[in-house]
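New to this. Help decode both lines:
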Amino acid sequence: MSLGASRDEFRFPARVPARKTFSAAVRFGSCDLGKKGYGFPPMQISRRSFLERALGCSLVAQSLRRGDAAVPPGVAPSELVVWPLDNLRAVGGATPTVLGGPRLVVDSGRTVLGFNGESDGLIFPQNPLAGQAAFTIEVLFRPDGDGPPAQRFVHLEDSHQNRALLETRVTADKKWYLDTFLYAPPQEPGLTLVDPNQLHPCGRWYWAALVYDGEVMAHFVNGVKERQGMIKFGPMRAGRVSLGVRLNKVFWYKGLLAEIRFHAKALAPASLQTDPPRR
């Protein structure tokens, strides 16, 4: 059975009476009803209950894949979505729109994507943060020292113009500092976190993180907090994501991107990624 199955596609053996019970420890696509964390351990349940839970699990997977905000009641969304950026065909369950010519590069033993700072980017028709009151975005990236001074390398925006951005500012001496932004119109003017004194050498790998716990926004580099502030934001709705450029195709990024992680909660600093590859 596929994750796109409708209610009518769920079939049970004719010999199983509607009022009898049976063991339900099965896997539907990427959603395991018998896996700890989904709330459905192996148990004796009615056929009707089994049907409802299986359908709900399938709908969650579809919702997360599309980036929709709706999640069936009583079913927890996945706490982690990982996008390994090692191809241009399918990332995060979707085929991106490719801008320019992002290239596949082998660096530090893994295949990653390279962006030229002028015309390369990816746009995805989904928002992994849809419906999340708290979240964490982690990005493994390597900025070049000869890129534009202001670059947007991750941009999420929903249908109501709520947006989250991770940006770099590159200095003349080939260093960079992190700039992050949350915007929730019309109730909030937006919050920018930036500190030009928090400089890092270009040409190296880093983990950047944007964390929001429902009240406080903070950003980190390699697990070290650099800035924080208060803002009322989200939950976001269905929307889009761009990598290597802002969604309106300005402020192009020059460098490499290896991986993005979307968490459906605000990670504690001790849980953040801190050890990027070293060349």
Remarks:
- The first strand starts at residue 21 and ends at 23.
- DSSP finds one helix and 20 strands in the chain.
- The CA atoms of residues 36 and 42 lie 10 Å apart.
